[in-house]
Amino acid sequence: MNTLVPTGKELAHVLRLFTSNPSQAQALVNRAVAIARARVVLRQCTLGRYVHVGDNVHCTAEGDITIGERVQFFGGMLASELRCHAGARLSIGERSQFNYGFSIEAHQSVSLGRRCMIASLVRISDSHRGKTAPVVIGDDVWIAHGAIIEPGVEIGAGSVVSAGSVVTTSVPPGHLALGNPARVVRLEALGVS
Amino acid sequence: MPSPGLGTLLASRFRLRHCAEVGPGTLAQGRLYIRGGGRIRLGARVVLDGRRTPIELHVGADAELVIDDDVHIAGGTSIETLQRVHIGARSHVGAFCKILDNHFHLVNGNRLERPASQPVRVDEEVMLGARSILLPGAHLGAGTVVHAGTVISRRFPPGVTLSGVPASVRRRSA
Known about the structure:
Mean pLDDT of chain A: 91
Oligomer: heterodimer
Mean pLDDT of chain B: 93
Radius of gyration of chain B: 16 Å
Order of helices and strands of chain A: HHEEEEEEEEEEEEEEEEEEEEEE
Low-confidence stretches of chain A: none
Helix content of chain A: 10-25%
Distance between the termini of chain B: 31 Å
CATH class of chain B: Mainly Beta
Radius of gyration of chain A: 19 Å
Strand order of the largest sheet of chain A: 2-5-8-11-16-19-21-22
Low-confidence stretches of chain B: none
Number of helices of chain A: 2
CATH superfamily of chain A: Hexapeptide repeat proteins
Structural class of chain A: alpha/beta
CATH superfamily of chain B: Hexapeptide repeat proteins
Number of domains of chain A: 1
Largest sheet of chain B: 12 strands, mixed
CATH architecture of chain A: 3 Solenoid
Strand content of chain A: 25-35%
Number of domains of chain B: 1
Largest interface: A-B, 27 and 28 residues
Number of strands of chain B: 19
Helix content of chain B: under 10%
């Protein structure tokens, strides 16, 4: 039996979904399109399953880009960029999420952990003004809108970089980095907010 | 500024067709993304200049965005509100500004939970420099000048000049 051809029952189910809950059906279609788009836009990368590209993502992979399972690039009003120069490595852990307009550039090595959240207009580069040093970002790190991560910076697991910060020194795990240049505060000291 | 032609005004009306109120002479040029389905009230002669880079207005279902008369908003600006953002008359919002009234994720605890909103208010005749960021709870008094790249998350008195990350008062008015 050929399982690729849908049966009448299956077709009826899909039809019922589209007529009874159009917004959910629309979301399903959008997701399928985004997964297909990822296969095209990120074709030079090593991709995990279900990588999602919403819109407006540009990728230049002269080096080695690895993207984990279920990573989501939401896309939006401004174009985003992934750029990996020859001989460099760029890796993104599974279930990380990216908003619009970010730019990540690797001359040597940039690695992001799992479940990271990268907000809009974030810039991460491992080379700037003649200094090249790897950037390592741990699991569950949240980098807020417009933050800039300079070369050689390590951000520990669970840390948060606040909006508009410029991070020039490493951030230990479980800390909040804020300011230009960024200073570091323990997340526990902030209380729940 | 030369008065806009009839075609420009009609195109603006079309782009702003989902707004609750649009004042006379209000212009929306270029690309404008309106999301979320909330109430947007635009005053008279507002300019939303998305010709080079788009403008995003994300207003959550129960939220309200109020932009008063003669406000100019430059391209690349994104305003996201889940409660209320108010921009006072004759203010200027520079290119690539971000105005948020919600952090969208908890800083401590479950990142997938959404914290409570804190309304953002910008009073009359405020100049917001390019790439400045207004975070939840920001309240700028009348006549404030904000340098480019400033990050603001609290209330400041009217008539000051602000700069830095996080923002500090650079100059007080005479």
